[in-house]
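User: Okay, second chain of the day. Same drill as before: sequence in, structure tokens out.
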Amino acid sequence: MNPQNNFPKIPFFFAILFLGTFFLLSVFFFRIIMNNNKELASLENLWQTEAFKRQELKTLYDSVQKIEQEKKELEIHFVQSSDIVPLLDTIEGLALKTNSKAEITFVDILKDHAGLMVGVRATGTFNGLYKFITLLENAPYELEIISMEMHKGSISDTQDNETKVPGWDMLLKVKLLSFI
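Assistant: Same drill. Structure tokens below.
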């Protein structure tokens, strides 16, 4: 017998065919995996870019919100010539906080338009008027007290004007420096 005839050819042929098929399938799947990895890397890069843009937008939004708050605080500090009512209301409100009464006697824009002059007549106790001046100095506006006159007077304690208590009258000239 011939030794070559005893070697089974059909199982060897199937083994080679099976090995070739698995080799081709592994190359095919390797390419699919590599393409998926490239696509995944591209998508991850796109995701990172979008996340970075979103973070930048959030930072920008937060900065705008902070600037808006600072802008509001700055606008409160300055008085525009078209809207001086909040300043006058602030002056009268500060007097009310000290149990005093204040009334605006005059308002005048300076000739160089660099400031606003306000006349205030206030009545109350000495302590109340002193606190009123302190509150004026600490007001959100930049004020300069140009002149102040205080005179001793009397204040009625009741609405019937029966009881008189020692009181003071004060005349102030205040210059608003933060004027636009």
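The helical segments are 3-6, 9-77, 85-97, 126-137.

User: Thanks, on to the next one.
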